[in-house]
Amino acid sequence: MTIWEYLLSAPAVWLFGIEDEKIEQMGRLSTHVLDTANGKPAAGVELRLYSLHGDGRKILKSATTNADGRTDAPLLIGDELLAGIYELVFCAGNYHRAQGETIATPPFLMKSRSALA
Predict the structure, then answer these.
(1) How far apart are CA 8 and CA 32, in angstroms?
(2) d(Cα 18, Cα 114) in Å, to the nearest integer?
(3) pLDDT digit string (tens) for 30-53?
(4) Can you give the pTM of this predicted structure?
(5) Is the CB of residue 9 less than 8 Å from the CB of residue 95?
């Protein structure tokens, strides 16, 4: 098994914080998932958005990417987009299995932190 097979086998997790008390009315949180290995949008990727509080987390939204690799609507918009720490989980392993790719066992979990101001 190559390192790439291992890395692609599990969900990818993005952690990020929003610092302002409240984002302006027009603020929104969206995502665009690309399959860079195959040079196309990643359609059919299941994802979940959580808010993190202390040691716990609460699911805010579940969605699946469309043919363009985006969700049909923003994950959060307007009054829903509050200051806080969020986790976005992409079910990348399921996507790659559906593409007919060999997936490593056990899956590997990748985390990255980003800040939004």
Answers:
(1) 17
(2) 9
(3) 999 999 888 999 999 999 998 888
(4) 0.72
(5) no
Q: What is the CATH number of the domain that holds 71?
A: 2.60.40.180
The 3-state DSSP class for residue 53 equals strand
Contact 1, 108 (CB under 8 A): no
User: 50 near 58, Cβ under 8 Å?
Assistant: yes
Asked if 96 and 2 count as a contact pair (C-beta separation under 8 A), the reply is: no
Amino acid at 54: G
H-assigned helices in 43-111 = 92-98
Place of tokens 């990818």: 12
Instruction: Look up residue 14 and give its two tokens.
Output: 């993005």
Question: How many structural domains comprise the chain?
Answer: 1
Asked if residue 42 lies in contact with residue 69, where contact means CB atoms within 8 angstroms, the answer is yes
For residue 21, give its domain range.
3-116
Other CB atoms closer than 10 Å to residue 38's CB: what's the count? 10
The whole-angstrom separation of Cα 64 and Cα 41 is 13
